[in-house]
Amino acid sequence: MSRETSDIQYLKKDLENGTVSIWYFETSTPQDTIAIPEEINGKTVSQIGERLFEGNEEVKTVILPKTVRAIGNSAFNFATTLEKVEISGPVEILENSSFYGCDSLQELNFPDGLKKIGDHAITACSSLTDLYLPGTVEEIDEDNFALCGEPLKIHVPAGSETEARLQEIMKSNDDLNIQIVEE
């Protein structure tokens, strides 16, 4: 159920598709950078589990491998020192409150493949000024992007479904201070 990676021990949960979700990690010394492994005990890591980094006040950088497809509910909720998340592969789903309250996060860049941004997944990130979304996003909950950088620049492919959905959200919520940047 666990694996040692340098100074980090991970606990995993087996998923029905034969992959695993990391739901806990422990270090013997403080770590400001955590590189999630692609595999644990020969099984592919496909998910960052619920609340994995919730409330963490040490980690500044998290590196996700190309195998991660989902970031669970509240995975980075109130990880107040988190400054950077390096996303190597096509994360498809951001569950509810994935990055809620990440006050030190300044930029998020999602490669092609992202399909769903859940309720409050990217909210109350006061330092977040640049968000890069691919044109593949099919579902964006309208309760996103509040209390982020002023303004939050959301970079999207021009004419994409993602851009159309963001325009709808802006029309229905006058209080949002977001700027769509077509690329």
- Report the CATH superfamily: Ribonuclease Inhibitor
DSSP E strands, number: 16
Give the percentage of residues in beta strands.
Answer: 25-35%
Shape: globular
CATH topology: Leucine-rich repeat, LRR (right-handed beta-alpha superhelix)
Can you give a write-up of this model?
There is one protein chain. The protein has 183 residues and is mainly beta. The protein has a single domain (2-129, 137-147), classed as Ribonuclease Inhibitor (Leucine-rich repeat, LRR (right-handed beta-alpha superhelix)). It is built from one helix and 16 strands. The strands form three sheets. Strands 1, 2, 3, 5, 6, 8, 10, 12 and 14 form a nine-stranded mixed β-sheet that branches. Strand 15 (152-156), helix 1 and strand 16 (178-182) form a beta-alpha-beta unit. It is globular, with a radius of gyration of 16 Å.
List the helices and strands and how they pair.
Layout lengths: L1 E4 L2 E7 L5 E8 L5 E3 L3 E2 L2 E6 L12 E4 L5 E2 L12 E4 L5 E2 L12 E3 L6 E2 L12 E3 L6 E2 L11 E5 L4 H12 L5 E5 L1
Parallel strand pairs: 3-6, 4-7, 6-8, 7-9, 8-10, 10-12, 11-13, 12-14, 13-15, 15-16
Antiparallel strand pairs: 1-2, 2-3, 5-6
